[in-house]
Amino acid sequence: MNEAHADALVFFGATGDLAYKQIFPALQAMVARGVLEVPVIGVARSGWTVDQLRARMADSLREHGGIDQAAFDKLSSLVHYVDGDYSDPATFTQMRETLGSAKRPLYYLAIPPSMFGPVAEGLAKAGCAANARVVVEKPFGRDLASAQALNKILHEHFPEEAIFRIDHYLGKEAVQNILYTRFANTWLEPLWNRTYLSHIQITMAESFGVQGRGKFYEEAGTIRDVIQNHMLQLVACLMMEPPTGSTPEPVRDAKATLIKAIRELCPEDVVRGQFQGYRSEQGVAATSTVETFAAVRLFVDTWRWADVPIYIRAGKALPVTACEVLATFRCPPRSVFGEPTYDGMNHLRLRLSPELVIALGTQVKKPGGTMAGVPVELEVMRRDRLAMAPYERLLSDAMHGDATLFARQDEVEAAWEVVDPILGDVTPVHEYAQQSWGPAEANALIAADGGWHDPLAHEPAVQEATEPEATTA
Is 230 annotated as catalytic? Predict the structure, then answer.
Protein backbone atom coordinates (compact mmCIF):
# COMPACT_ATOMS: atom_id res chain seq x y z
CA MET A 1 0.00 0.00 0.00
CA ASN A 2 1.45 3.39 -0.99
CA GLU A 3 1.73 6.26 1.47
CA ALA A 4 -1.17 8.16 -0.08
CA HIS A 5 -3.61 5.28 0.33
CA ALA A 6 -5.91 5.36 3.35
CA ASP A 7 -5.33 2.46 5.74
CA ALA A 8 -8.90 2.44 7.15
CA LEU A 9 -12.35 3.56 6.05
CA VAL A 10 -14.75 4.88 8.69
CA PHE A 11 -18.24 5.83 7.63
CA PHE A 12 -20.64 7.68 9.88
CA GLY A 13 -24.31 7.02 9.21
CA ALA A 14 -23.74 3.29 8.68
CA THR A 15 -27.37 2.35 9.33
CA GLY A 16 -28.86 5.09 7.14
CA ASP A 17 -30.53 5.29 3.74
CA LEU A 18 -27.42 6.31 1.81
CA ALA A 19 -25.37 3.43 3.18
CA TYR A 20 -28.12 0.97 2.28
CA LYS A 21 -28.65 2.17 -1.28
CA GLN A 22 -25.16 3.25 -2.33
CA ILE A 23 -22.29 2.61 0.07
CA PHE A 24 -22.65 -1.13 0.70
CA PRO A 25 -22.87 -1.99 -3.03
CA ALA A 26 -19.86 0.26 -3.68
CA LEU A 27 -17.83 -1.41 -0.92
CA GLN A 28 -18.55 -4.91 -2.25
CA ALA A 29 -17.52 -3.82 -5.75
CA MET A 30 -14.30 -2.29 -4.39
CA VAL A 31 -13.46 -5.55 -2.60
CA ALA A 32 -14.20 -7.53 -5.77
CA ARG A 33 -11.79 -5.30 -7.75
CA GLY A 34 -9.11 -5.72 -5.09
CA VAL A 35 -8.94 -2.03 -4.12
CA LEU A 36 -10.40 -2.37 -0.62
CA GLU A 37 -8.39 -4.46 1.80
CA VAL A 38 -8.39 -2.27 4.92
CA PRO A 39 -10.66 -2.18 8.00
CA VAL A 40 -14.13 -0.74 7.34
CA ILE A 41 -15.71 0.74 10.46
CA GLY A 42 -19.37 1.71 10.49
CA VAL A 43 -20.47 4.26 13.08
CA ALA A 44 -24.09 5.01 13.98
CA ARG A 45 -26.38 5.58 16.96
CA SER A 46 -28.92 2.83 16.37
CA GLY A 47 -28.16 0.46 19.24
CA TRP A 48 -26.96 -2.21 16.79
CA THR A 49 -24.25 -4.87 16.84
CA VAL A 50 -21.77 -5.69 14.10
CA ASP A 51 -23.82 -8.76 13.19
CA GLN A 52 -26.88 -6.58 12.64
CA LEU A 53 -24.82 -4.29 10.41
CA ARG A 54 -23.60 -7.28 8.36
CA ALA A 55 -27.19 -8.50 8.01
CA ARG A 56 -28.31 -5.09 6.76
CA MET A 57 -25.38 -5.07 4.37
CA ALA A 58 -26.53 -8.42 2.96
CA ASP A 59 -30.11 -7.12 2.57
CA SER A 60 -28.78 -4.05 0.79
CA LEU A 61 -26.76 -6.11 -1.68
CA ARG A 62 -29.64 -8.47 -2.44
CA GLU A 63 -31.77 -5.47 -3.33
CA HIS A 64 -29.10 -3.48 -5.19
CA GLY A 65 -27.19 -5.71 -7.57
CA GLY A 66 -26.83 -9.02 -5.78
CA ILE A 67 -24.33 -10.70 -3.48
CA ASP A 68 -20.91 -11.68 -4.80
CA GLN A 69 -20.30 -14.35 -2.18
CA ALA A 70 -16.49 -14.25 -2.20
CA ALA A 71 -16.39 -10.44 -2.09
CA PHE A 72 -19.15 -10.32 0.53
CA ASP A 73 -17.36 -12.78 2.79
CA LYS A 74 -14.17 -10.74 2.60
CA LEU A 75 -16.04 -7.47 3.18
CA SER A 76 -17.79 -8.99 6.19
CA SER A 77 -14.40 -9.89 7.67
CA LEU A 78 -13.24 -6.27 7.24
CA VAL A 79 -16.36 -4.70 8.77
CA HIS A 80 -16.51 -3.43 12.34
CA TYR A 81 -19.19 -1.41 14.08
CA VAL A 82 -19.13 1.35 16.71
CA ASP A 83 -22.45 2.36 18.24
CA GLY A 84 -22.83 5.68 19.98
CA ASP A 85 -23.98 9.27 19.90
CA TYR A 86 -21.95 11.65 17.75
CA SER A 87 -21.85 14.17 20.59
CA ASP A 88 -20.47 11.65 23.10
CA PRO A 89 -16.64 11.59 23.44
CA ALA A 90 -16.86 7.89 24.35
CA THR A 91 -18.00 7.11 20.80
CA PHE A 92 -14.78 8.52 19.38
CA THR A 93 -12.64 6.85 22.02
CA GLN A 94 -14.12 3.49 21.04
CA MET A 95 -13.63 4.31 17.37
CA ARG A 96 -9.98 5.18 18.00
CA GLU A 97 -9.49 1.79 19.67
CA THR A 98 -11.20 0.03 16.76
CA LEU A 99 -8.88 1.78 14.29
CA GLY A 100 -5.96 -0.02 15.92
CA SER A 101 -2.68 0.77 14.16
CA ALA A 102 -4.29 2.75 11.32
CA LYS A 103 -2.53 6.09 10.77
CA ARG A 104 -4.20 7.44 7.59
CA PRO A 105 -7.94 6.88 7.97
CA LEU A 106 -10.60 8.16 5.59
CA TYR A 107 -13.74 9.40 7.33
CA TYR A 108 -16.92 9.45 5.28
CA LEU A 109 -19.68 11.61 6.78
CA ALA A 110 -22.88 10.11 5.31
CA ILE A 111 -24.84 12.22 7.79
CA PRO A 112 -26.81 15.51 7.71
CA PRO A 113 -24.63 18.66 7.51
CA SER A 114 -25.80 19.71 10.98
CA MET A 115 -23.67 16.88 12.38
CA PHE A 116 -20.45 17.77 10.50
CA GLY A 117 -19.31 20.08 13.30
CA PRO A 118 -19.82 17.69 16.24
CA VAL A 119 -18.19 14.81 14.35
CA ALA A 120 -15.19 16.87 13.20
CA GLU A 121 -14.71 18.17 16.75
CA GLY A 122 -15.09 14.67 18.22
CA LEU A 123 -12.47 13.31 15.82
CA ALA A 124 -10.03 16.07 16.68
CA LYS A 125 -10.45 15.71 20.46
CA ALA A 126 -9.92 11.96 20.22
CA GLY A 127 -6.69 12.46 18.27
CA CYS A 128 -8.19 10.98 15.11
CA ALA A 129 -7.91 13.95 12.73
CA ALA A 130 -4.14 14.02 12.12
CA ASN A 131 -3.10 12.64 8.69
CA ALA A 132 -6.74 11.83 7.95
CA ARG A 133 -9.09 12.73 5.11
CA VAL A 134 -12.78 13.50 5.40
CA VAL A 135 -15.48 12.99 2.77
CA VAL A 136 -18.65 15.06 3.17
CA GLU A 137 -21.94 14.63 1.33
CA LYS A 138 -24.11 17.18 -0.40
CA PRO A 139 -26.04 19.31 0.23
CA PHE A 140 -23.05 21.35 1.36
CA GLY A 141 -25.01 24.15 3.00
CA ARG A 142 -28.36 25.74 2.14
CA ASP A 143 -26.95 28.99 0.76
CA LEU A 144 -23.64 30.84 0.50
CA ALA A 145 -23.54 31.87 4.16
CA SER A 146 -24.19 28.36 5.49
CA ALA A 147 -21.66 26.84 3.07
CA GLN A 148 -19.03 29.29 4.27
CA ALA A 149 -19.91 28.42 7.88
CA LEU A 150 -19.53 24.68 7.16
CA ASN A 151 -16.18 25.27 5.50
CA LYS A 152 -15.02 27.22 8.54
CA ILE A 153 -16.06 24.37 10.86
CA LEU A 154 -14.25 21.73 8.82
CA HIS A 155 -11.13 23.88 8.41
CA GLU A 156 -10.77 24.12 12.17
CA HIS A 157 -9.73 20.46 12.15
CA PHE A 158 -8.83 19.53 8.55
CA PRO A 159 -6.80 21.36 5.87
CA GLU A 160 -8.54 22.00 2.53
CA GLU A 161 -6.50 19.31 0.77
CA ALA A 162 -7.90 16.73 3.23
CA ILE A 163 -11.56 17.65 2.60
CA PHE A 164 -13.36 15.74 -0.19
CA ARG A 165 -16.80 17.22 -0.98
CA ILE A 166 -18.63 14.46 -2.80
CA ASP A 167 -21.07 15.01 -5.64
CA HIS A 168 -21.95 11.58 -6.99
CA TYR A 169 -22.81 13.12 -10.37
CA LEU A 170 -19.10 13.70 -10.99
CA GLY A 171 -18.51 9.97 -10.51
CA LYS A 172 -20.77 9.05 -13.42
CA GLU A 173 -18.95 7.56 -16.39
CA ALA A 174 -20.97 9.74 -18.75
CA VAL A 175 -19.94 12.99 -17.03
CA GLN A 176 -16.28 11.97 -17.06
CA ASN A 177 -16.70 11.16 -20.74
CA ILE A 178 -17.65 14.79 -21.43
CA LEU A 179 -14.22 15.94 -20.29
CA TYR A 180 -12.50 13.20 -22.22
CA THR A 181 -14.44 13.79 -25.43
CA ARG A 182 -13.82 17.52 -25.28
CA PHE A 183 -10.10 17.46 -24.68
CA ALA A 184 -9.00 14.25 -26.42
CA ASN A 185 -10.36 15.20 -29.87
CA THR A 186 -9.29 18.03 -32.14
CA TRP A 187 -12.45 18.18 -34.26
CA LEU A 188 -14.63 19.60 -31.48
CA GLU A 189 -12.46 22.37 -30.05
CA PRO A 190 -12.60 24.80 -33.03
CA LEU A 191 -16.42 24.66 -32.96
CA TRP A 192 -16.95 24.77 -29.20
CA ASN A 193 -17.45 28.51 -28.72
CA ARG A 194 -19.78 31.47 -29.24
CA THR A 195 -18.90 31.73 -32.95
CA TYR A 196 -20.50 28.41 -33.82
CA LEU A 197 -22.83 27.54 -30.95
CA SER A 198 -26.22 29.21 -30.66
CA HIS A 199 -27.20 27.88 -27.22
CA ILE A 200 -26.91 24.87 -24.94
CA GLN A 201 -29.74 23.20 -23.07
CA ILE A 202 -29.68 20.54 -20.37
CA THR A 203 -32.63 18.46 -19.23
CA MET A 204 -32.46 16.41 -16.03
CA ALA A 205 -35.83 14.70 -15.77
CA GLU A 206 -37.18 12.21 -13.24
CA SER A 207 -40.48 10.44 -13.89
CA PHE A 208 -41.05 9.75 -10.19
CA GLY A 209 -42.03 12.15 -7.41
CA VAL A 210 -40.44 12.59 -3.99
CA GLN A 211 -41.25 8.97 -2.99
CA GLY A 212 -41.31 9.33 0.77
CA ARG A 213 -38.68 12.07 0.88
CA GLY A 214 -41.16 14.89 1.42
CA LYS A 215 -39.53 16.15 4.60
CA PHE A 216 -36.12 16.29 2.94
CA TYR A 217 -37.50 17.96 -0.16
CA GLU A 218 -39.25 20.63 1.90
CA GLU A 219 -35.80 21.64 3.15
CA ALA A 220 -34.16 21.46 -0.26
CA GLY A 221 -36.24 21.95 -3.40
CA THR A 222 -34.94 21.43 -6.92
CA ILE A 223 -32.63 24.45 -7.03
CA ARG A 224 -30.74 23.39 -3.90
CA ASP A 225 -31.02 19.67 -4.60
CA VAL A 226 -29.69 19.49 -8.17
CA ILE A 227 -29.21 22.90 -9.85
CA GLN A 228 -26.59 24.35 -7.47
CA ASN A 229 -24.47 21.19 -7.48
CA HIS A 230 -25.11 18.56 -10.19
CA MET A 231 -26.12 20.94 -12.95
CA LEU A 232 -23.52 23.67 -12.35
CA GLN A 233 -20.81 21.03 -12.15
CA LEU A 234 -22.06 19.66 -15.47
CA VAL A 235 -21.97 23.16 -16.97
CA ALA A 236 -18.37 23.48 -15.77
CA CYS A 237 -17.40 20.21 -17.47
CA LEU A 238 -19.07 21.30 -20.70
CA MET A 239 -17.66 24.82 -20.86
CA MET A 240 -14.38 25.00 -18.90
CA GLU A 241 -11.11 25.87 -20.62
CA PRO A 242 -8.57 23.07 -21.21
CA PRO A 243 -6.74 22.29 -17.96
CA THR A 244 -2.97 22.55 -17.93
CA GLY A 245 -2.66 18.93 -16.85
CA SER A 246 -4.64 15.86 -15.79
CA THR A 247 -3.68 16.03 -12.11
CA PRO A 248 -6.40 17.13 -9.66
CA GLU A 249 -5.61 20.81 -9.18
CA PRO A 250 -5.39 21.94 -12.84
CA VAL A 251 -8.74 20.27 -13.53
CA ARG A 252 -10.34 21.79 -10.44
CA ASP A 253 -8.77 25.19 -11.23
CA ALA A 254 -10.40 25.17 -14.68
CA LYS A 255 -13.80 24.16 -13.28
CA ALA A 256 -13.66 26.77 -10.51
CA THR A 257 -12.71 29.50 -12.99
CA LEU A 258 -15.73 28.65 -15.16
CA ILE A 259 -18.20 28.57 -12.26
CA LYS A 260 -16.90 31.91 -11.02
CA ALA A 261 -17.64 33.36 -14.47
CA ILE A 262 -21.32 32.33 -14.40
CA ARG A 263 -23.50 35.39 -14.01
CA GLU A 264 -25.62 35.51 -10.85
CA LEU A 265 -29.18 34.47 -11.55
CA CYS A 266 -32.01 36.99 -11.32
CA PRO A 267 -35.78 36.37 -11.07
CA GLU A 268 -36.23 36.91 -14.81
CA ASP A 269 -33.98 33.92 -15.47
CA VAL A 270 -35.87 31.31 -13.43
CA VAL A 271 -39.22 29.54 -13.51
CA ARG A 272 -40.23 27.35 -10.58
CA GLY A 273 -42.91 24.66 -10.60
CA GLN A 274 -44.56 22.20 -8.21
CA PHE A 275 -46.30 19.03 -9.38
CA GLN A 276 -49.95 18.51 -8.54
CA GLY A 277 -50.26 16.34 -5.44
CA TYR A 278 -46.92 17.32 -3.91
CA ARG A 279 -48.63 19.03 -0.95
CA SER A 280 -50.35 15.75 -0.08
CA GLU A 281 -47.02 13.97 0.38
CA GLN A 282 -46.03 12.96 3.92
CA GLY A 283 -43.83 15.62 5.52
CA VAL A 284 -44.92 18.36 3.09
CA ALA A 285 -46.68 21.50 4.31
CA ALA A 286 -50.23 22.03 3.06
CA THR A 287 -49.23 25.50 1.85
CA SER A 288 -45.76 24.57 0.58
CA THR A 289 -44.16 26.78 -2.06
CA VAL A 290 -41.10 24.53 -2.48
CA GLU A 291 -40.28 23.81 -6.12
CA THR A 292 -40.15 20.30 -7.57
CA PHE A 293 -39.22 21.74 -10.98
CA ALA A 294 -36.92 24.57 -11.98
CA ALA A 295 -35.89 26.03 -15.32
CA VAL A 296 -33.07 28.56 -15.43
CA ARG A 297 -31.23 30.59 -18.07
CA LEU A 298 -27.52 31.06 -17.43
CA PHE A 299 -24.81 33.16 -19.03
CA VAL A 300 -21.05 32.63 -18.72
CA ASP A 301 -19.19 35.91 -18.87
CA THR A 302 -16.04 34.80 -20.67
CA TRP A 303 -14.60 35.60 -24.10
CA ARG A 304 -15.44 32.10 -25.36
CA TRP A 305 -19.05 32.03 -24.15
CA ALA A 306 -20.26 35.65 -24.12
CA ASP A 307 -23.98 35.90 -24.97
CA VAL A 308 -24.49 32.14 -25.40
CA PRO A 309 -27.46 31.18 -23.19
CA ILE A 310 -27.40 27.92 -21.26
CA TYR A 311 -30.85 26.61 -20.41
CA ILE A 312 -31.34 24.07 -17.64
CA ARG A 313 -34.54 22.36 -16.58
CA ALA A 314 -34.77 19.77 -13.84
CA GLY A 315 -37.73 18.29 -12.11
CA LYS A 316 -39.75 15.44 -10.73
CA ALA A 317 -42.93 13.75 -12.02
CA LEU A 318 -41.89 14.49 -15.62
CA PRO A 319 -42.59 12.18 -18.59
CA VAL A 320 -39.29 10.28 -18.49
CA THR A 321 -36.18 9.68 -16.40
CA ALA A 322 -33.16 10.87 -18.36
CA CYS A 323 -30.41 13.47 -18.46
CA GLU A 324 -29.45 14.97 -21.80
CA VAL A 325 -27.39 17.86 -23.15
CA LEU A 326 -28.16 19.42 -26.53
CA ALA A 327 -25.62 21.89 -27.92
CA THR A 328 -27.18 23.65 -30.92
CA PHE A 329 -24.97 25.07 -33.67
CA ARG A 330 -25.83 28.30 -35.46
CA CYS A 331 -27.68 28.13 -38.75
CA PRO A 332 -25.71 28.28 -42.01
CA PRO A 333 -25.38 31.93 -43.12
CA ARG A 334 -27.55 31.32 -46.18
CA SER A 335 -29.44 28.51 -47.85
CA VAL A 336 -27.61 27.29 -50.96
CA PHE A 337 -30.41 24.97 -52.04
CA GLY A 338 -33.39 27.24 -51.40
CA GLU A 339 -34.55 25.41 -48.30
CA PRO A 340 -35.34 27.25 -45.05
CA THR A 341 -32.67 26.98 -42.40
CA TYR A 342 -33.73 26.47 -38.81
CA ASP A 343 -32.12 26.52 -35.39
CA GLY A 344 -31.36 22.96 -34.38
CA MET A 345 -30.62 21.48 -37.77
CA ASN A 346 -27.05 20.85 -36.56
CA HIS A 347 -26.40 19.80 -32.98
CA LEU A 348 -24.32 17.66 -30.65
CA ARG A 349 -26.45 15.54 -28.34
CA LEU A 350 -25.01 13.97 -25.21
CA ARG A 351 -27.25 11.48 -23.40
CA LEU A 352 -25.81 11.06 -19.90
CA SER A 353 -28.40 8.74 -18.39
CA PRO A 354 -29.80 6.18 -18.22
CA GLU A 355 -27.31 5.21 -20.96
CA LEU A 356 -24.41 7.01 -22.59
CA VAL A 357 -24.93 8.33 -26.12
CA ILE A 358 -23.01 10.83 -28.26
CA ALA A 359 -24.79 11.84 -31.47
CA LEU A 360 -24.39 14.50 -34.15
CA GLY A 361 -27.43 16.08 -35.78
CA THR A 362 -26.90 16.84 -39.46
CA GLN A 363 -28.76 17.32 -42.75
CA VAL A 364 -28.45 14.78 -45.57
CA LYS A 365 -29.94 14.78 -49.05
CA LYS A 366 -33.19 12.94 -49.64
CA PRO A 367 -32.97 10.31 -52.38
CA GLY A 368 -34.38 11.59 -55.64
CA GLY A 369 -33.96 14.25 -58.21
CA THR A 370 -34.36 17.32 -56.02
CA MET A 371 -31.77 18.95 -53.78
CA ALA A 372 -33.82 18.63 -50.61
CA GLY A 373 -32.65 17.44 -47.22
CA VAL A 374 -33.78 15.52 -44.18
CA PRO A 375 -32.40 15.70 -40.62
CA VAL A 376 -30.60 12.63 -39.30
CA GLU A 377 -28.39 11.81 -36.33
CA LEU A 378 -24.98 10.23 -36.68
CA GLU A 379 -24.54 8.18 -33.55
CA VAL A 380 -20.91 8.36 -32.51
CA MET A 381 -21.16 6.09 -29.48
CA ARG A 382 -23.73 4.21 -27.47
CA ARG A 383 -23.00 2.39 -24.24
CA ASP A 384 -25.81 0.82 -22.25
CA ARG A 385 -23.92 -0.28 -19.15
CA LEU A 386 -21.51 1.73 -17.05
CA ALA A 387 -18.26 0.09 -16.03
CA MET A 388 -18.17 1.51 -12.51
CA ALA A 389 -20.91 2.97 -10.31
CA PRO A 390 -20.37 6.58 -9.14
CA TYR A 391 -19.87 5.82 -5.44
CA GLU A 392 -17.46 3.00 -6.22
CA ARG A 393 -15.34 5.36 -8.32
CA LEU A 394 -15.47 8.25 -5.86
CA LEU A 395 -14.75 6.22 -2.73
CA SER A 396 -11.87 4.48 -4.52
CA ASP A 397 -10.44 7.88 -5.53
CA ALA A 398 -10.81 9.26 -2.00
CA MET A 399 -9.03 6.22 -0.57
CA HIS A 400 -6.14 6.97 -2.95
CA GLY A 401 -6.19 10.71 -2.21
CA ASP A 402 -7.24 11.67 -5.75
CA ALA A 403 -9.42 14.79 -5.48
CA THR A 404 -10.03 15.33 -9.22
CA LEU A 405 -13.74 14.47 -9.07
CA PHE A 406 -14.43 16.26 -5.78
CA ALA A 407 -15.56 19.87 -5.40
CA ARG A 408 -13.15 22.37 -3.90
CA GLN A 409 -14.16 25.10 -1.45
CA ASP A 410 -14.07 27.91 -4.02
CA GLU A 411 -16.15 25.86 -6.50
CA VAL A 412 -18.88 25.21 -3.94
CA GLU A 413 -19.04 28.81 -2.74
CA ALA A 414 -19.01 30.18 -6.30
CA ALA A 415 -21.94 27.90 -7.20
CA TRP A 416 -23.92 29.20 -4.22
CA GLU A 417 -23.19 32.77 -5.35
CA VAL A 418 -24.86 31.96 -8.69
CA VAL A 419 -28.14 30.69 -7.17
CA ASP A 420 -28.31 32.71 -3.94
CA PRO A 421 -30.39 35.55 -5.47
CA ILE A 422 -33.21 33.16 -6.51
CA LEU A 423 -33.50 30.95 -3.41
CA GLY A 424 -36.77 30.85 -1.51
CA ASP A 425 -39.91 32.58 -2.72
CA VAL A 426 -38.24 35.27 -4.84
CA THR A 427 -40.26 33.94 -7.79
CA PRO A 428 -43.74 32.36 -7.80
CA VAL A 429 -44.20 28.60 -7.95
CA HIS A 430 -46.47 27.34 -10.74
CA GLU A 431 -48.45 24.11 -10.49
CA TYR A 432 -48.00 21.50 -13.22
CA ALA A 433 -49.62 18.17 -14.00
CA GLN A 434 -47.69 15.02 -13.22
CA GLN A 435 -46.04 13.43 -16.28
CA SER A 436 -46.04 16.78 -18.07
CA TRP A 437 -42.92 18.82 -18.90
CA GLY A 438 -43.51 21.31 -16.09
CA PRO A 439 -45.35 24.62 -16.07
CA ALA A 440 -46.04 26.40 -19.35
CA GLU A 441 -44.11 29.43 -18.09
CA ALA A 442 -40.88 27.46 -18.57
CA ASN A 443 -41.50 27.38 -22.31
CA ALA A 444 -41.41 31.18 -22.52
CA LEU A 445 -37.93 31.17 -20.97
CA ILE A 446 -36.43 29.40 -24.00
CA ALA A 447 -38.89 30.48 -26.71
CA ALA A 448 -36.37 32.78 -28.41
CA ASP A 449 -34.11 29.77 -29.02
CA GLY A 450 -36.71 27.42 -30.45
CA GLY A 451 -38.05 25.67 -27.36
CA TRP A 452 -37.01 22.72 -25.24
CA HIS A 453 -35.62 19.57 -26.79
CA ASP A 454 -37.64 16.46 -25.91
CA PRO A 455 -35.51 13.46 -24.79
CA LEU A 456 -38.44 11.22 -25.73
CA ALA A 457 -37.70 12.01 -29.37
CA HIS A 458 -34.90 9.44 -29.17
CA GLU A 459 -36.82 6.43 -27.92
CA PRO A 460 -36.28 3.51 -27.50
CA ALA A 461 -33.03 4.56 -25.83
CA VAL A 462 -34.76 5.91 -22.72
CA GLN A 463 -35.42 3.39 -19.98
CA GLU A 464 -37.57 4.29 -16.98
CA ALA A 465 -35.97 4.47 -13.55
CA THR A 466 -37.98 4.23 -10.35
CA GLU A 467 -35.53 4.66 -7.49
CA PRO A 468 -34.89 8.13 -6.06
CA GLU A 469 -31.49 9.38 -5.02
CA ALA A 470 -30.49 8.32 -1.51
CA THR A 471 -30.19 10.93 1.22
CA THR A 472 -28.23 11.26 4.42
CA ALA A 473 -31.29 12.41 6.37
Answer: yes
